[in-house]
């Protein structure tokens, strides 16, 4: 009976995770359209050309598959993982329908996503998550963050990090200083194998298109490699 319920739970997780992927595809296309309707006519052609590309899953389904395997192997973590998955689903289904969300909502979504992906790595893996946001700041609860804006940086870290190599790590830092929000994500990549760009580059193109439309002159996206450590840094100004 316990095994039967366990199998049902795993099946339910598989269905839920597939639903998450589909919803993210839909929401990305919708966000591109919303950015288009914001009055940025010079981006019309670019947004339209990205609409079909955004239908492709940018949140790598392999990340969820590995997380699911970890959940199956460690039953005691199942309900914890389900709680985090529920948070991710709620955000995608309801909160991301809005043009902007609060920093609190976006960060909580990102943290839940990180915790789901934490299950795919060894308990000894160096996954560093730091939150240096002053929750007393009025900007913390003001709606000025585009939903899902943090997803690309976090996804790429888990996708490209060398999880098996000695000294491997992923470091994620959330900061709010004055009127500036910064997300910095770093990870060690395989020696001798430079980080490969996506075939179409659509991930970066979509993110930069959204940033240009929603934060004109108030954003900076920096990506660089130094000593086998890849770093992506997103800075937004209110």
Automatic annotation (TrEMBL):
Gene3D superfamilies (alphabetical): Histidine kinase-like ATPase, C-terminal domain
Keywords: Kinase, Membrane, Transferase, Transmembrane, Transmembrane helix
A GO term from the CC aspect: membrane
Molecular functions (GO terms): phosphorelay sensor kinase activity
InterPro entries reported for this sequence: Bact_2-comp_sensor_kinase (IPR050640), HATPase_C_sf (IPR036890), Sig_transdc_His_kin_internal (IPR010559)
One of the Pfam families matching this protein, by short name: His_kinase
Domain Signal transduction histidine kinase internal region, first and last residues per copy: 51-121
Signal peptide start-end: none
PANTHER family cross-referenced by the UniProt entry: SENSOR HISTIDINE KINASE YPDA
Annotated protein name in UniProt: Histidine kinase
């Amino acid at each position: 009976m316990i095994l039967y319920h366990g199998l049902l739970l795993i099946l339910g997780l598989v269905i839920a995770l597939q639903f998450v992927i589909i919803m993210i595809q839909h929401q990305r296309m919708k966000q591109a359209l919303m950015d288009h309707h914001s009055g940025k006519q010079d981006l019309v052609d670019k947004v339209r050309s990205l609409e079909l590309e955004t239908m492709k899953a940018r949140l790598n389904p392999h990340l969820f598959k590995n997380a699911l395997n970890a959940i199956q192997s460690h039953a005691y973590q199942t309900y914890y993982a389900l709680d985090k998955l529920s948070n991710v689903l709620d955000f995608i289904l309801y909160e991301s329908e809005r043009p902007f969300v609060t920093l609190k909502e976006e960060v909580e979504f990102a943290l839940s996503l990180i915790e789901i992906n934490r299950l795919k790595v060894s308990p000894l893996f160096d996954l560093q998550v730091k939150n240096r946001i002053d929750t007393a700041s009025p900007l913390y609860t003001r709606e000025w963050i585009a939903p899902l804006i943090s997803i690309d940086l976090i996804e790429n870290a888990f996708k490209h990090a060398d999880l098996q190599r000695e000294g491997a790590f992923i470091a994620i830092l959330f900061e709010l200083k004055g009127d500036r929000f910064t997300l910095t994500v770093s990870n060690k990549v395989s020696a001798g194998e430079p980080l490969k760009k996506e075939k179409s580059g659509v991930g970066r193109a979509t993110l930069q298109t959204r940033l240009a439309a929603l934060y004109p002159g108030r954003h900076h996206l920096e990506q660089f490699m130094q000593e086998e450590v890849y770093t992506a840094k997103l800075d937004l100004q209110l």
